[in-house]
Amino acid sequence: MPSIPSKAQLMELLAHSVSTHYADFTSAAADMGLTSSQAKTLTVLRRAPASMRSLAITLACDASNMTGIIDRLEKRDLVHREVSPTDRRVKNVALTETGQKAIDTIRERMEQTQTGLDNLSDEERAELFRLLTVVFPR
Amino acid sequence: MPSIPSKAQLMELLAHSVSTHYADFTSAAADMGLTSSQAKTLTVLRRAPASMRSLAITLACDASNMTGIIDRLEKRDLVHREVSPTDRRVKNVALTETGQKAIDTIRERMEQTQTGLDNLSDEERAELFRLLTVVFPR
DNA sequence: ACTCGATGCTTGAGGACATCAAACAATAGG
DNA sequence: CCTATTGTTTGATGTCCTCAAGCATCGAGT
Q: What is the pLDDT of residue B19?
């Protein structure tokens, strides 16, 4: 029977885990010549195209900030803007093929996280999944 | 018996959890007028003073970068530099009382994370602790 | 003691990110 | 229509980040 960690201890471990994961992500992104903000943006777009505004909301930053980030991604053909057919104020941003590949590669290259997860059994992965869902619900 | 999530699903959930925690931290820091880099630095110093170099290593950034971050923290009396008595090249950085309080306050104000953890039973917290230790060993 | 390479920190230049205020176009509702 | 609102961009300012270069100090070897 393991001793029960205090909430503070768990907070600390959580912080450590987050730091490690984040560093892993940032470093994998840097290998592709991308900043973590750029890579985060690609991650959001991986599922579905989004308007500038909704990107800003998802990434919790100012809309004016997104302009620069998307500018730089677009300049490298990782992403492209497209005026919404239903509202001409809106610009929808979508991944290009290149962008899709870039973000997939980054995920594959997160070695620390990958090998960490490999240390879990199937049951443990299921349990971690469940617990994380409770702590960080969508 | 829960179905077993694929590794990709777990990676995704992990990314979501990390984002949420990181946003929580950043927002709590911003409430105190601190950037996340500044708050991260305070976190590292919470345990023990450290030299500029070791801070840079821990935070995975260039040493020249730390100069500016510590400059700004020192200007606000959250931290102070002190020449090492054993090696005059080295500057040891330590939290001031104010800095100690600031980082404690930030931790307390991470409400999303706090309430998330409150949703776990003691056993679940112990299990999450164990699993995270496996995935992200120190 | 003296030189020399290595180490610790800072400075300066240049790019990226973040926030705010302000501008502009387009929409929606009266 | 007129007006308020919304979506995006621009510009200013500060922070972060990386690189190259500089200075001071240390340590080992001669």
A: 94
